[in-house]
Amino acid sequence: MPESLQFPSSMGQEDALLWALERDPGLRSTAAAVTLLDRAPQRRRLVAALEAAACAVPRLRQRVVELPAMISPPVWAEDPHFDLSYHLRFVRAPGDGSLEELLPLAAALVMQGFDRSRPLWEFLVVEDLEGGRAALIQKLHHAVTDGVAGVMLMQRVYETSADPVPSSRVPREPIRATPRGILRLSAEALWRRLSEAPDLARQRASGAMEIARHPLESMRETSEALGSLAPMFSPALRPTSPLMQDRSTRYRFETLRMPLADLKAAAHAAGCKLNDAYLAGLTGGWQRYHARHATSIDLLRAMIPLDLRGSQSGSIMGNSLSLARFSLPTQDADPSRRMQRIREIIGSQGRRPPAAYIEAVAGLLNLLPPALLTTIFGTMARSVDFIASCVPGPPDLLYLAGSTVEAILPFGPTGGAAANFTLFSYAGEAAVTINADPAAVPDAHVLRDCMHESFQEVMGLARPPAAHSVRSG
User: Fold this and answer.
1) Are 112 and 257 within one domain?
2) Which of 219, 379, 399, 423 could form a disulfide with 159 if both were Cys (CB 3.0 to 4.6 A apart)?
3) Cα–chain-centroid distance for residue 194?
4) Whether 157 and 265 share a structural domain
5) Which residues contact 114 (CB under 8 A, 6 or more apart)?
6) What is the pTM of this model?
7) Which are the catalytic amino acids?
């Protein structure tokens, strides 16, 4: 049963900030996934599944409308000209149909900006891959969904059985939307603000009373919240790595796949968790990559998303993550010690700032002139060496319109960093994807090989390295 999703009418301040930063192509927040299939999906069945998903998930048929800033952040409105055939297209595989030919096609699609007058997603089915296989390239803006909500969104499109979906799930009538102009949308946004004002006033009054009752505790909580935000905005004008100084708007995709159980066992052997083993594999890979280029590094600056959803039931569609910045060690040759040190750093510095503080800071930043905003964030983002995300995926096999899903390979945006890594677990396998900026990492295949060696070493903590299977692609 798909989990419940919430669809706010307007963007939160953080989503609005991501949207404003789109003015700089190097700061685009486009996320992607390449789903590998054992065969081409049945076209009519896939179209029916997406029609049903568009009925169940309003965000799939909504576009962004910008209103005057003093009235509201950008709002989501039904696209009166929504056309599924624009968002779902079919092509034949390039070249020899290998993964090596497929990934550049996916990267080229993701590098292209969205048509801002339409819903912010595109699906491309690539047929006739080698061995009769196929792939689905999915491209979504981060304001539509982050990785966690994206997994929930998958439940509306993918299936848990290869059997045909019941006809009752297929919509009988096309979706019709009534056009709404800026004046009407502005009036609706103002009405929402007025209707929410009493609740907001009560919340602020309650907060003030709580501060009056417990002043010392409130000061401590505020100090901790501000402290958790400080690393994001502390000065850093250049990347830590002397190799990866340049940036561009280009992408290069690479992948690794390995048994999830082996990576978890390695983490357990060191008294750590999966995310610690993952980061130890990345830092070890970076150390190898720099050594290949006759360069030594002690630390690298990393951005790691922290989930702000907490225990709330149902997921809010959009971005519910906060990026925390860490300086992670790379020099220790012992993967166990490196893993434990990373765990200490994340544990001591990785406090999740309250969502209210994130929204408040984002709201203030949204008041800045766009040119100044992109300059500030562009400078901060390009000082980051890499971004690393860990997203838990479905534990069991999935199916798509009669095809078996063999692998799901998500690629996060570089957002100004030299590279973005994502670990995604699916059906007992851990896929580590690499989105590298060729200006910073001109030889992404060498970086992939270094990461391969490092993860072999990390998983060797649990069993002899020969017992593991880390493979590219």
Assistant:
1) no
2) 399
3) 33
4) no
5) 30, 120, 122, 141
6) 0.83
7) 142
